[in-house]
From TrEMBL:
Gene Ontology molecular function terms on file: (3S)-3-hydroxyacyl-CoA dehydrogenase (NAD+) activity; enoyl-CoA hydratase activity; isomerase activity; NAD+ binding
Pathway the protein takes part in: Lipid metabolism; fatty acid beta-oxidation
Protein name: 3-hydroxyacyl-CoA dehydrogenase
Oligomer status and interactors: Monomer.
Organism of provenance: Caballeronia zhejiangensis
Amino acid sequence: MTLSSAPETASAVQHELRGSVLVVTIDHAPVNALNAAVRRGLIDAIEAADADASVRAVLIVGAGRNFIAGADIREFGKPAVPPSLPEVCNRIERCEKPVVAAIHGAALGGGLEVALASHYRIAVAGAKLGLPEVQLGLLPGAGGTQRSARLIGAQAALSMMLSGHHIGAEEALRLGLVDRVGQSDDVFAEGLAFAHELIATKAAPRRTKNARGLADKEASVAAIAAARAETQKKSRGLLSPLKIVDCVEAALNLPFDEGLRFEREQFLECRESPQRAGLVHAFFVERETQKSPETRDAQPRALDRIGVIGGGTMGAGIAVALLDAGLAVTMIERDEASLERGSAHVEKVYDALIAKGRLTHESKTRALQRFHGDTKYDALADADLVIEAVFEDMAAKKAVFAQLDRVCKPGAVLATNTSYLDIDEIAASISRPQDVLGLHFFSPANIMKLLEVVVPARVSADVVATGFELAKKLKKVAVRAGVCDGFIGNRMLAVYRAAADHLMEDGASPYQIDRAVRDFGFPMGPYQVIDLAGGDIGWAARKRRAATRDPNARYVRIGDELCERGWFGQKTGRGFYRYEDGARTGTPDAEVESIIDAERERAGVKPRPFTDEQIVRRYLAAMINEGANIVHEGIAQRPLDVDATLMHGFGFPRYRGGPMHYADTVGLDNVLADIRAFAQEDPLFWRASPLIVDLVARGRNFASLNQTA
Ligand code: 3H9
């Protein structure tokens, strides 16, 4: 059971006496975040409890689906309003009557800190307890580092805070984070019974600051040292993970109050940092992108039986993503041999997961029970949604859609996974254009979080809403995109890769470019990515576009030179890097450098040196400028949709919040000045986006365009 919400006019925290228990209910929809009103209300309630002799225990519960989801993230970056959360937690801990926190749903971050400051804790089934601050570039800043370590020991506390993962009620009981798990899911009844029991047994307040979880000093020192070594290796670009370790060390070595002061200083430093701003932006972006005019206005259609056309890498990856979400999948291939290959591809994805220990044979068997293959389109007569993933050729796609038009039931959603073809043209080729949608997955489709929901002109709103609903089922970040060559992500990729190629021909080596881009925070540089994906893919696209390319546009031939030698990257053992004996990490190749030298000479370029910073500035200016064009043309609804695309499909570091957020942090006027300076050399490539020019003229930034769609 969950407690029902009080009317909106009611205050964010109510308290009422139930016998001798003061029941304090936090009621601040949607997730009981600890904004100023809730903080004030909690202090008032505890003051009331201490002042009233008839109160013998206090029970804190949350209304709605959660206990408390944490500090109010929307307050960060704004002037602080007292009381602070540390003051609230300290006041709860000082209460002279026993305080029970009864937890259902989320008790996260500051929410768990309120529970830790309470004297007793009970959780019911479905509770999620965690300290996820690290995922927002923060650390628990209301005593959480000091109290959690004292309560459950250094190792368990570090593991919770460094991973940011939440745990369930049973696991919390095992760790000693809660005292008991409720017999039923009625959190109010369970909490009240616990409070009455404490009164009956004359239990005194039990303050977590006095808990003995760090008593084994040797074990604590070892846990801290191990966490520090591990964190130093893993937390590139992030500020808070090492500070979390420092705070737990402070919990071990300092008196409680000094530890709290130390934690506060570290917290404030993190809160004011750009990486916190980037990660909080990312948090909201991931939620905002799910909102589109269509999801607001229309209901999704049914989504149980799904068809996938094509069993290549993409089709198989999509099938696995669907199966993993519990959906039934029918794969169509043109003949038995192709179908067998397609099924084998699906199995291979699962076998790779089993080999890595991420999946059991039983789970694979269970998933494959929902998988069927067929060579006849008629097998899709019952499908609610079909995703076409055949090769990128307009005639082939139209042939598939003609079949779908013939066999699918009325109202079935017909989606294409094309990366760049004109979906309006595909839609116009059949009798039901209103049912045709783009669902653009990224490889590997069962892993990559991004799904571009591409919206053709004649599609009906409920079909678009169905695309978003599918993304939700697949736990993907859906971004609404308009129809154009490359949609949002690949269109931007083409431009910033061209900027990288220009840098390479002008004098930077591909190895320096990759390093500079990695040091910025991308997991890989552009040339490593080309080698991983296969250089032949881009080569084919370049050949396809050759006829329509502006003859005056700069064209760098280095990639073509490598492909002409059959150097397609990892799969051929050579690309921009050498991969000796099947190695997955490449080594620089002197021969590639001579090819680059020869191309520079052929193009009449006198090579010049670039610093890593200059490389990153050009790379990002190209990315930001094209992102702005995409927003300007309405292909992306808002700058935040571009941010989500780059963070979830193209490795843009989350802690930098995406290219558009990043542009705001460096200042749009600075980005514009860079673009104009680069345009001196190549005015055709570096044309400032009208959107940037307009925003700079009006003294505004991209964030000002990020209202809800
Ligand atoms: C912290 O606590 C710091 C302290 O240690 C120190 C302080 C001194 N604030 O996710 P949903 C909004 S840091 C404000 O779609 P679900 C969210 O934006 C915090 N708003 O629902 C959305 O708004 P909208 C540590 C918040 O059911 C709506 O609530 N805590 C907050 O799928 C529904 O959210 C965390 O990091 C917030 N804290 O999942 C927990 N949280 O409707 C962050 C959510 O306008 N939250 N909103 O789009 C979550 O993980 C999930 O929201 C939760 C619910 C699991 C709670």
